[in-house]
Structures are given as C-alpha cells and as structure tokens.
Specification:
The complex is a heterotrimer of chains A (116), B (254) and C (120). Chain A is mainly alpha-helical. Chain A is built from 4 helices and no strands. Chain B is an alpha+beta fold and 254 residues long. In chain B, the strands form 2 sheets. Chain B has a 5-stranded mixed β-sheet with strand order 2-1-5-3-4. In chain B, strands 6-7 form a two-stranded antiparallel ribbon. The mean pLDDT of chain B is 91. Classes of the chains: A mainly alpha (116), B alpha+beta (254), C mainly alpha (120). Chain A binds chain C through residues 14, 17-18, 20-21, 24-25, 28, 31-32, 34-35, 38, 41-42, 45-46, 49, 54, 61, 64, 68, 71-72, 75, 78, 104, 107-108, 111, 116, and chain C through 13, 16-17, 19-20, 23-24, 27, 32-39, 62-63, 66-67, 69-70, 73, 98, 101-102, 104-105, 108-109, 112.
C-alpha cells in the first residue's frame, strides 16, 4: 500500500464507517425491544450494560468522534482550497479527536470501573 | 557525469522481475560508487552498463519533462531523473527502487500503463472549440488563463495514477491524471462539450469515487494538485446546467 | 432508474451535517453523564414530542449516511461494479424498512397510563 497520512486517514475512515453502520443496526435492534413492552426493553438494555459493553462503548465513542472530525476536515477541503495543508489538517484532526475522546471517555471509564 | 570529487559507496536495492524466469518479483542489491551529483537514473544506467545488462527501465529526456522514468523510490512515486541518490539514502546507506505500484509489471521497472491511457482517452483530453473560429484569436481573461495554468504542466508520468488508492482496487476509476485534464478542458471557456464532459466525470467511475486521500498530490513530480481539480469538478457537476448555460453565454463574447 | 452519484454525494454531505448536529445532541443528552439506563430514564426525555421529532431526524440522517456510505464502500471494488444497480435498489429497500421500523420504535416510547401524572 502507498502509505501516507491521507491513506491512513482514509483507512481509519473506512474501518470506523463500516463499524458504525453495523453498530447503527445493532442499536436499533436493542432499542426496538420497546415494541415488545417495557419489561423486554429493560431486560435487553440490562444485557448490553454488562461491564464488557461499557468498555466497548468507549471504543464506539472513539470511532464516532474520529469519523465525525475527519468528515469535517473533508468538508473544509471541499469548500476551501487548502489541499496544500493536508498534513497539518490530518494532525489537527488527530489532536482534536484525541482531546474529545479523552474528555468524553474519562467519565465513561470511571463509570465502567464502578464509579457513578 | 558531473562530479565534485568526493565519492561514496551505496547500495541500490532493485525489484527485479523477468516474466520468462521469475514467478514473482525478487529484490536484488547492487553496490556502486556515486558522487553527490549522481541521480537515481544515473545509478540505474551505471548498473545496466557495468553490472547487469538485463536491467530494464524506461527513460528518455533526463530533464523531468518526458514522463518516462516514474518509479517508486523508498515507497514514494517520483521521477528518478531529477532525484539525487544522496537525498534518498536510508540509515544503512541504501535506496530501494521499485516499479510504479498497482500496475501489471512487464519487466523490471517497466509497467503496463494501458489502463492509464484508456482512462486518459475516456475524458476526451483534447479541446473542442466552437465551429466559428474567429479571424484573429480567442480572447480569454487573465483569470481564465490563470485557472488553466497548472493543469497544463502535467507530463503524463503516471506517478499520481499509480499512487492512488482508488485506482489500486478499481481500474475503472478515471484516475487523477485524467480528471486533472478534464478540469483543464471544463474550465476552458473555449470548450463546447462541457455538458458531456461533466456527465462523464460525475458518473459511476468519476469524481465522486475520489476519497480525498491526497496521494496524487504527494506523488506528483510537477507539484500539481489533482485533488483540488477534482473538488472543483465536484462543485461544477452539482450545478451542471447553470454552468453550461453560463458557458454558452460566455462564448458569445470570446 | 439511473443511480446519480451527484445525488449520492449530496445526500451524504447533507446527512453528515445532520449527524454532526443531531448525533452530538443525542450523545450529550441521552448518554451523559454515563449511568445506568432503563425505561424510566429514557422516558424522561422521550415523553416529549420534540425529542421524538429530533430522534426521527437523527434516525433519517444516520440511515442515509450509513446506506450511502456502505453503497460507496462496496461499489469501490471493481468486480462489484456490474451489480451496482441491484445494490442501489437493495440500499433503498434497506433504508425504507429500517426507517419505518425505527420510526415505529421511537413512537412506541409512551408513558404507561398509571404513571402519566407522576411526571410534571
């Protein structure tokens, strides 16, 4: 593969994109249990709140945040003539995503480890 | 060969492939003396002359204008005739040269560029001027000329096409070289088949297959910007009818 | 019906902007601070028609983005190219079914009759 920052961001975008699309349908299936009544809903929701899922949700947050911030970068490239700053933009996406993932992930990690 | 006196010994690692003998490409190392002025092409010529006459590669002008000698040096596509060996040595004093990636290898550094030229022809890279040619000349504004300026410098070396991740998995994709040329013709106020061009480039294999990976810009030895050309074409494809109408209006005053 | 890549591109950009707005809202309001989720917590929010409206818009954006994205990922492979018409129809059907199912789900969040007067 021709490895550049552009290829790396593309690969991450593809992987997170496909993962998120699959998650969307899983999410709809979980929430869809409300159609069988309140008890079924609480039951299925409890299943997906076992400790392992709490850690997986942090990975989910990371995927959502990266995919979203990277998408904003693509909008910037589309509307402004900034292709020459492609590497800076890539690192900016990485830094912004990392900050948002830490900010959002820390409370989730505390909760997963048994906090409130 | 120009020299400033000091020489050093380096290792040139070449990917060799002879379709008559080899099942798949093999890496071979060659040791030779270079000066600070030796280009990678010079080194290849030297290996061919003194070590292995069967080494096959394309080259012609040695002035970075014919576009024959695009190869993959240390994982990056570039012309080898304007790159000094010294600038590409890794920590062990070696440089690795392979043919352009993602294209079928004919022999050693020579790749089959059929798909490259087929996609180029597909966008009709020539200008289709109005039927009634004026007596003296077409009058374009400086801004209109400036917009075309960059794309005309393309030397068709294939570095961007071969670096593109999209063409790697899909040879039907028109490719950055042809889309850059298409933008050159679409933006040209003299062109009369703008509508047809925009329909072709906005189709299944066109500009919307580009995933803005920027490999084409990284690879281009002429520092051109196919990605921006593609973004421009994307904008024009979305307002095709208005753009074509404006073009017809513009041509009345050429 | 001819699949227009210009339309796919526009749908994807439009739904992307929708997602940035609605998904951020959704994640902050529905999942922060992280805590145990059950019907009683979800219904606090879902009892309001405005939230149902926002969630339906979120659902539409997410589905459009996911379906167009998957279509582009799959048809990027050269050999799949000849099935793109079939894949296009499959995408439209998938979107329609999932959107109807999701909308029914969102509208199914109703306060049980005996607790209606407990929530102001």
């Amino acid at each position: 593969m021709y490895k550049t920052t552009g290829f790396f961001s593309f690969a991450l975008r593809r992987i997170t994109g496909v993962a998120l699309a699959l998650y969307l349908f899983l999410h709809m299936w979980v929430i869809g249990s409300i159609n069988q009544g309140q008890a079924a809903f609480d039951d299925r929701l409890a299943t997906v709140q076992q400790p392992i899922f709490k850690f997986l949700e942090i990975a989910l947050l990371a995927a959502v945040v990266y995919h979203g911030v990277d998408g904003i970068r693509l909008l910037i490239v589309h509307y402004f003539n900034v292709a020459e700053y492609r590497r800076s933009l890539f690192y900016a996406v990485m830094v912004v995503s990392a900050l948002l993932i830490i900010a959002g992930g820390l409370p989730m990690l505390m909760f997963a480890l048994g906090g409130h | 060969m120009a020299t400033n006196g000091t020489t050093r010994t380096v290792t040139i690692r070449l990917q060799r492939f002879n379709p008559d003998v080899d099942k798949k490409p093999v890496m071979k190392e060659y040791t030779l003396e270079i000066t600070s002025d030796t280009t990678i092409l010079d080194a290849l010529e030297q290996i061919k002359a003194t070590q292995d006459g069967s080494l096959t590669f394309r080259r012609s002008c040695r002035h970075a204008i014919c576009g024959s000698c695009a190869m993959n040096v240390n994982g990056r596509n570039t012309l080898v005739c304007n790159q000094r060996v010294n600038a590409h040595l890794d920590r062990k004093g070696a440089v690795t040269v392979r043919p352009l990636p993602y294209l079928p290898i004919i022999k050693d550094m020579v790749v089959d560029r059929t798909s490259f030229w087929e996609q180029y022809q597909r966008v009709k890279p020539w200008l289709v001027p109005p039927d009634d040619v004026p007596e003296k000349e077409f009058r374009m504004t400086p801004e209109e000329v400036a917009a075309l300026n960059d794309a005309e410098k393309c030397i068709m070396c294939g570095a961007c096409y071969s670096a593109c991740t999209v063409t790697a998995v899909n040879k039907r994709y028109i490719g950055p070289h042809a889309l850059l040329k298409a933008s050159l013709r679409v933006l040209d106020p003299r062109d009369t088949i703008t509508n047809e061009r925009l329909i072709e480039i906005s189709g299944n294999d066109g500009v919307f297959r580009c995933h803005t990976i920027f490999n084409c810009i990284d690879a281009c030895p002429k520092k051109l910007n196919p990605t921006q050309a593609i973004e421009t074409l994307r904008k024009l494809a979305q307002k095709r009818e208005a753009f074509v109408a404006a073009r017809k209006e513009r041509q009345k005053s050429l | 019906m001819q699949i227009s890549h210009t339309r796919i591109f526009q749908l994807q950009r439009l739904s992307a902007i929708g997602l940035v707005i609605f998904l951020t809202t959704h994640m902050v309001v529905a999942h922060y601070p992280p805590g145990h989720l059950d019907f009683s917590r979800v219904i606090e929010r879902m009892a309001y028609p405005l939230w149902k409206g926002i969630d339906i818009l979120l659902l539409a954006s997410a589905l459009v983005h996911a379906v167009t994205g998957m279509y582009m990922v799959i048809t990027d492979v050269e050999k799949v190219g000849r099935y793109r018409q079939v894949l296009g129809w499959a995408s439209i059907i998938l979107f329609t079914v999932a959107f109807i199912y999701g909308t029914i789900t969102i509208l199914a969040f109703r306060l049980p009759a005996e607790t209606v007067n407990l929530i102001p």
